[in-house]
Write a structure and sequence with these properties.
The protein is 63% helix and 8% strand. The chain contains five helices and two strands. Strands 1-2 form a two-stranded antiparallel ribbon. The protein is globular and about 45 Å long. The protein starts with a helix and ends with a helix.
């Protein structure tokens, strides 16, 4: 099992989201996520893995023949914070 797959499974577990929620947001089947979490799948299809990582705001890069999750940088954290502020602003405006 690759390190990136283990990291994505950890993201799913820590999120508290159900398999259906993750699958719905990623555009794959619930059975796919369920099979990942129960260990029936040890190496997922890369396009599905990319979509699931994107649900959690993570991106995956290939370097030295290995896939890995791109770590958060101060700039990426600041960008996510700005998006959250914009959302709150829109939400307040429409209430």
């Amino acid at each position: 099992m690759s390190d990136v797959f283990v990291a994505v499974k950890r993201l799913i577990n820590r999120s508290g989201m159900s398999a259906w929620n993750v699958a719905h947001k990623a555009g794959c089947s619930e059975a796919t996520i369920y099979n990942w979490m129960t260990g029936r799948v040890t190496e997922p299809h890369l396009p599905t893995l990319l979509k699931v990582a994107a649900v959690f705001g993570k991106s995956i890069e290939l370097s030295d023949g290995e896939a890995r999750i791109v770590p958060d940088t101060p700039a990426s954290v600041a960008a996510k914070l700005n998006q959250a502020r914009e959302f709150v602003g829109y939400w307040r405006r429409w209430q």
